[in-house]
């Protein structure tokens, strides 16, 4: 039985993918440089696995990590729009060149399939809603451009070489272990930890901007289906819940769960942020059999509880 390589496995999403693979009895190898990931995420994985501390920009290290692998779940990235605006070259090197390194390693080591963590940032701020995979793309930040470059390399490798690739365009993923302390933290961990610590959450813009929030457990399911479903090589699929929620509405729901009043601060919108994001997931459902298992509100409750537990035990989720 081949190994499963999970790049970025010390990070939020990939540690959940590795966790599921380990629990299902697979041989898992994690490759991460621990830049935004954490050892505590590795410690949360329920079973044994191999860990290689390495950088996706280091071609020979990636090639060695891909040896004897059947599938690579390529999740490593600098996943931040603001960081990419500050340092586009670094984000390009990790997200675009790093993906090219993973693909060449896969080709050279006879890997069957690479599943790539693509991003809904590829849709930009165009008016068509909900977003379908065939819609015209628009890259409003260097992050979006670098992630899309990774997508294009995936598509080209599936055509040119004997390696299958499937791209999953994640929308706004949330759940336990998403880092609330990163300077580029996502909105749900920021809101939840602010409220748990008695601080006032800040909404950038008027709060009417909306997102298709998807629970990390549903993203794990999509990755496993993308790895094992036949005849989907070179395809791209949205991974989302298929429903949109306003950012102010989402904060109200968190306030309800925590039983605190809804009283945010408002600040000007941030450069590079899109106004609305909402996915059509019908192709993902049809081709991969993807079926989100947990509703938004249930997942929000699980997430809030996980942050509450970790704050009370003084360690982060
Ligand atoms: N979180 C979201 O909502 C979201 C949405 C769309 C796409 N994605 C994509 O999903 C993937 C995972 O994102 P996440 O939210 O879990 O972020 P994360 O920062 O928690 O995880 C990324 C992991 O990659 C590792 N990494 C970064 N640079 C590396 C390098 N040069 N070499 C090796 N490892 C490196 C980090 O240490 C970290 O463990 C990324 O590819 C991201 O672009 C995330």
Describe this structure in words.
This protein has 317 residues and is α/β, with parallel strands linked by helices. It folds into two domains: 3-173 and 215-239, Rossmann fold (3-Layer(aba) Sandwich); 174-211 and 243-277 and 294-312, UDP-galactose 4-epimerase, domain 1 (Alpha-Beta Complex), CATH 3.90.25. The protein has helices spanning 12-23, 39-43, 59-65, 81-86, 88-108, 142-160, 187-196, 216-228, 247-258, 282-288, 296-312, and strands at residues 3-7, 27-32, 50-53, 69-74, 113-119, 164-170, 172-174, 202-204, 210-211, 213-215, 235-239, 245-246, 265-267. A seven-stranded parallel sheet has the order 3-2-1-4-5-6-11, with helices on both faces. The longest helix is centred in the N-terminal third of the chain and has 21 residues, at 88-108. The mean pLDDT is 95. Nicotinamide-adenine-dinucleotide (NAD) is lined by residues 8, 10-14, 32-37, 55-57, 75-79, 94, 98, 117, 119, 147, 170, 172-173, 179, 186.
| Helix and strand element order | EHEHEHEHHEHEEHEEEHEEHEHH
Beta strand count: 13
CATH topology of the largest domain: Rossmann fold
Total individual domains? 2
Mean pLDDT: 95
Instruction: Please report the distance between the alpha carbons of the first and last residues.
Output: 32 Å
**Structural Rg:** 19 Å
Please work out how many helical segments DSSP would assign.
11
Q: How are the elements arranged and paired?
A:
Layout: E1 3-7, H1 12-23, E2 27-32, H2 39-43, E3 50-53, H3 59-65, E4 69-74, H4 81-86, H5 88-108, E5 113-119, H6 142-160, E6 164-170, E7 172-174, H7 187-196, E8 202-204, E9 210-211, E10 213-215, H8 216-228, E11 235-239, E12 245-246, H9 247-258, E13 265-267, H10 282-288, H11 296-312
Parallel strand pairs: 1-2, 1-4, 2-3, 4-5, 5-6, 6-11, 7-10, 8-13
Antiparallel strand pairs: 9-12
This protein binds nicotinamide-adenine-dinucleotide.
Nicotinamide-adenine-dinucleotide (NAD) is lined by residues 8, 10-14, 32-37, 55-57, 75-79, 94, 98, 117, 119, 147, 170, 172-173, 179, 186.
């Amino acid at each position: 039985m081949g190994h499963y390589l999970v790049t970025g496995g010390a990070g939020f999403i990939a540690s959940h993918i590795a966790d599921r693979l380990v629990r299902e009895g697979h041989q898992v190898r994690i490759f991460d440089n621990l830049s935004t990931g954490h050892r505590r995420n590795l410690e949360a994985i329920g079973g044994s696995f191999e860990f290689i501390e390495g950088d996706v920009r280091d071609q020979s290290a990636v090639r060695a990590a891909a040896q004897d692998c059947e599938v690579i779940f390529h999740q490593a990235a600098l996943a931040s729009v603001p960081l990419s605006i500050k340092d586009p070259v670094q984000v390009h090197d990790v997200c675009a060149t790093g993906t090219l390194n993973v693909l060449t390693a896969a080709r050279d080591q006879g890997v069957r399939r690479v599943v790539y963590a693509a991003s809904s940032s590829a849709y930009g701020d165009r008016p068509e809603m909900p977003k379908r995979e065939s819609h015209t793309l628009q890259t409003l930040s260097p992050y979006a451009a670098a992630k899309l470059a990774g997508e294009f390399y995936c598509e080209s490798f599936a055509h040119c070489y004997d390696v299958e690739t499937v791209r999953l365009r994640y929308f706004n993923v949330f759940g336990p272990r998403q880092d609330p302390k990163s300077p580029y933290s996502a909105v749900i961990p920021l809101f939840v930890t602010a409220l748990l610590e008695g601080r006032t959450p800040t909404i950038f813009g008027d709060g009417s901007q909306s997102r298709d929030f998807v629970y990390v457990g549903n993203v794990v399911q999509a990755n496993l289906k993308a790895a094992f479903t036949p005849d989907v090589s070179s395809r791209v699929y949205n991974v989302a819940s298929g429903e949109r929620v306003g950012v102010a509405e989402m904060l109200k729901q968190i306030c309800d769960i925590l039983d605190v009043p809804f009283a945010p601060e408002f600040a000007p919108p941030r450069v590079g942020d899109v106004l609305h994001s909402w996915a059509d997931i019908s192709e993902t459902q049809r081709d991969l059999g993807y079926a989100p298992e947990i509703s938004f509100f249930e997942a929000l409750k699980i997430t809030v509880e996980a942050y509450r537990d970790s704050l009370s035990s003084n360690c982060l989720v």
